[in-house]
Amino acid sequence: LYSSTAVTAALSRRLAERTTETSLAAAGIALASALMFGRVLALTAILATSALPSLALAIGPGAVLALGLS
Q1: In sequence order, which residues have a C-beta less than 8 Å from that of residue 11 and are 6 or more positions away?
Q2: Do residues 33 and 55 touch, judged by C-beta distance below 8 A?
């Protein structure tokens, strides 16, 4: 398991310190966000199955966009 917030914070800190390449950090942040969307959908499928279709429609485009950026 990982924390998408922790990954985003760590990569943002590296960007501010200029210790990592911008495109690599941006891709890492986008991938962490995409995985977060997937984790939320998986938990919703387990815990609130009836809410899954509506949630997927709401956050699906964000997940696709995040995957496209990574």
Answers
A1: 20, 25, 28, 29, 32
A2: no
Identify which has the larger pLDDT, 69 or 10. Answer: 10
DSSP for 17-61 reads HT-S-HHHHHHHHHHHHHHHHHHHHHHHHHH-GGGHHHHHHHHHH
Total-model pTM: 0.70
- Rounded to whole angstroms, what are the CA distances from 20 to 38, 66, 68? 26, 20, 21
DSSP annotation of 2: -
Give 7's contacts (C-beta < 8 A, 6+ positions apart).
28, 29, 32
- The one-letter amino acid code at 34 reads A
